[in-house]
Specification:
480 residues, alpha/beta, nine-stranded mixed beta sheet, six-stranded parallel beta sheet, 18 helices, globular
Length: 480
């Protein structure tokens, strides 16, 4: 049996700020348990839910040397969904009201976490064959492992898989400070190792020293080797291309199931899609104060309100769309102030057509997915994206830009062959996005049977974690 330890800064159900938590907490449950023993290790944050913290049981304690510092490490353990979770406890590093703080605090926090994980391995009684590390927060683990720990017999033969969920976030900070924090030798801070553009770069270290690198879609795996998508590391990613694999994220179909979802008003499936969606749509219009109109297309967006997600395109066309088109728009999320205020403005100006919900609610998110006719994701870049997968699962037709995982998962509608699961546009251009929305509206209003078939095809596509788990198993099997 192959032993794998997921090392991550967050994982559901214990702590979540984004899609990383869904992947790290959900994926391990879908491996073949006769062949793979997959466990998870993450920090024990003070901001975790109190009820979840009560499930943790003390396992052991030790001290770790972080450069000239000696720091306490508590190890706790629990089981959730049949998976063993380990937690690294240190109140100095993991206190506070949120898991991440300023970068200058986080670079030390996750250097500590990386060393604590490696030091804890002999103590927890689980020697993994593979350390599967996620994002920049764990980038130093392959660095420490290959340069320090594999000198010890216990660590020899442990291999690393490093998954990049978003290359934009790299854990970069001042070189001299990182040298002092990590205690790593001067020779590792060269241009072919941890240095990038005059700074120390945690993610670069993970890429340089890992045996295999994965990212969360095939198109994104290509994009990060190019100047346009490589975030300054395209040369390195291209150099490691033979070890780079793209595996699309999956969905937990038990959580996202319109037939059993307790967050929505009227559960439904493929066979009663039209009736079920209409009931949910009416209720959402009432809840959000939109005009109650069965026939108007309802367009949804559930997202972080950032430039990455394409909201500068929305700023260019939203006034025209709301003033001229028969459409309603509902937005849920928080982010950059300019986009929060943009949506608030248009919700005020077009109060019966636009609803801006500048907060986050998992329950409301489910109701939006279930109630809307279409779902918009005009991302500048999108490593994988889960919202388009969720929207298709709920019979809501996605309108996306062809980038990263959006290109890999949404098949553009072809009216002549009657194929496709959504609508897409290629260039990052507001007019192109608007024309695609108008085309989608034409199909919705004038070819409704075709629209319903698009929605049903999306509902029946398999984006479950089983598919992703089989691909990761192939990766693990490549490592001897």
């Amino acid at each position: 049996m192959k032993k794998v330890l997921f090392v991550t800064s967050e994982a559901v159900p214990f702590i979540k700020t984004g899609g990383l938590a869904d992947v790290a907490g959900s994926l391990p449950r879908y491996f073949d348990r006769k062949k793979y023993d997959v466990r998870i290790i993450l920090p024990k944050y003070a901001c975790m839910d109190a009820g979840l913290k009560e499930k943790l049981r003390f396992h052991s304690r030790l001290y770790v040397k972080l450069s000239w510092r000696s720091q306490y490490v508590g190890v706790l353990e629990t089981k959730e969904g049949g998976i063993t979770y380990y937690f690294i406890d240190n109140e100095y590093y993991f206190a506070g009201t949120k898991p991440y703080n300023n970068i200058y605090e986080d670079v030390e926090k996750f250097a500590y976490f990386s060393k604590a994980v490696l030091e804890a391995l002999p103590v927890i009684g689980f020697r993994p064959d593979i350390l599967h590390c996620h994002d920049w927060q764990t980038g130093l683990i392959p660095v420490y492992l290959k340069n320090e720990y594999q000198k010890q017999e216990f660590y020899q033969g442990i291999q690393t898989v490093y998954t990049i969920h978003n290359l934009q976030f790299q854990g970069r900070w001042m070189m001299q400070v990182v040298k002092d924090i990590t205690g790593l030798p001067e020779t590792l801070f060269s241009a072919d190792k941890l240095e990038a553009y005059g700074e120390a770069n945690y993610l670069k270290g993970g890429v340089v020293y890992s045996d295999i690198i994965t990212t969360v879609s095939k198109t994104y795996a290509y994009e990060i080797t190019t100047p346009a998508g490589g975030e300054g590391l395209n040369g390195l990613m291209h150099a490691r291309q033979k070890d780079l694999y793209g595996i699309i994220n999956g969905l937990d179909y038990k959580v996202f199931d319109p037939c059993t979802d307790t967050c929505i008003v009227h559960p439904f499936g493929v066979n009663d899609l039209a009736a079920g969606k209409l009931e949910n749509k009416r209720k959402l219009q009432q809840e959000l104060g939109l005009a109650e109109d069965d026939g108007t297309m309802l367009l949804g967006m559930v997202s972080r309100l950032t430039t990455q997600k394409g909201f500068d395109l929305m700023d260019s066309i939203l006034d025209e769309l709301l003033s001229r088109a028969r459409i309603q728009v509902v937005v849920l999320g928080t982010g950059q102030a300019e986009y929060e205020n943009m949506f608030r403005h248009y919700a005020w100006k077009y109060s019966d057509k636009m609803s801006a919900n500048i907060f986050y609610s998992e329950q409301l998110a489910h109701r939006i997915y279930a109630s809307c006719d279409a779902f918009l994701m005009p991302s500048l870049f999108e490593p994988c994206g889960l919202s388009q997968l969720i929207s298709m699962r709920y019979g809501t037709v996605p309108v996306v830009r062809e980038t990263g995982g959006l290109k890999d998962t949404v098949e553009a509608y072809n009216r002549y062959e009657q194929t496709g699961t959504g609508f897409s546009f290629c260039n990052y251009n507001a007019r192109e996005m608007l024309s695609t929305l108008y085309y989608a509206m034409d199909i919705y209003y004038n070819h409704r049977e075709d629209w319903d078939q698009i929605a049903k095809r999306g509902m029946t596509r398999d984006f479950s974690w089983e598919q992703s788990a089989r691909e990761y198993e192939k990766i693990y099997d490549m490592l001897s």
